Amino acid sequence: MLGDGVYALTAEGDPNVGAVEGEDFLVAFEARATPLMARRWLDRLREHTGKPVRYLVLSHYHAVRTLGAAAFGATAVIAHERTRALIAERGQADWESEAGRMPRLFQGAETIPGLTWPTVTFSDRMTLELGGDRGCVELRHCGRGHTAGDIVAWLPRSRVLFAGDLVEARAALYTGDAYHREWSTGTLDAVAAIGAEVLVGGRGAVARGDGVREAVEQTRGFLGTLLSEVDGVRTGGGSLREAFVAAHAALEPRYGRWPIFEHCLPFDVQRAWDELAGIEHPRVWTAARDREVWAELQG
Ligand SMILES: [Zn+2]
Predict the structure, then answer these.
(1) Mean pLDDT of 27-56
(2) What pLDDT is stored for residue 135 in this prediction?
(3) 175 alpha carbon to ligand 1 midpoint, in Å?
(4) What strand order describes the sheet that includes 26-29?
(5) How confident is the model at residue 2 (pLDDT cuts 50, 70, 90)?
(6) pLDDT at position 210 over 80
(7) Separation of 67 CA from ligand 1 center, angstroms?
């Protein structure tokens, strides 16, 4: 419990989830990868409150955060409009890719009824009133970052921010679908400007006080180092493999011991390379392309 009626479940390296109590309903943030995994989270939540989930908010389209949605029985599933478009374009490929990359998170995969479709979307901001004197949840798009359509959930009353994968606290970053330059500048500036006192990132522990700024700067540092290393090798005429080696060497001392570092870095380097080569819209990851890049860089 993070405050009066504010809950988060964090697990080292696994996607974090959260919930906020309204007067007679709940707002849930993130759905986990399968209904079975989601029910385990809901069972924990039910130790504190029996209110029904009215709104399920999805920070972005990735399968490990969306495919458990059926377990919530939510009246509305809310996401950014680009998240809906990305699910239509690449949701199926992403499902297969992520299930192959992280089978541990897909326990009860047979309980997934299909892709999760947001029923309410927005482009900039949306406010959910919680009723009584509970204040509101502000959903905001801070710019492109981890994906084209990330949103954060801000609770002005308790000054808690659910940041999705835009910020990781003592966990490495997955940037395979990212916009590194925009994320590391304007988007993180906008996240920092919110002024959160408690931050629940996409993975890792809850950050508090000075730890909030540290988590934002740790995220910015990872992106900046990755970009500059890949750019240095590219402009020097080097190969993707050489860019991976350089990025690994530069990031490993600070980030190498944190969850998912080795696991994500090949995909991160490939996307940074593509972005610097002028590929604006991230290429779709498929299970086959995952294996190719992994064999080339980490094999
Ligand atoms: Zn993600």
Answers:
(1) 97
(2) 96
(3) 8
(4) 6-11, 14-21, 26-29, 53-57, 76-80, 120-122
(5) confident
(6) yes
(7) 13
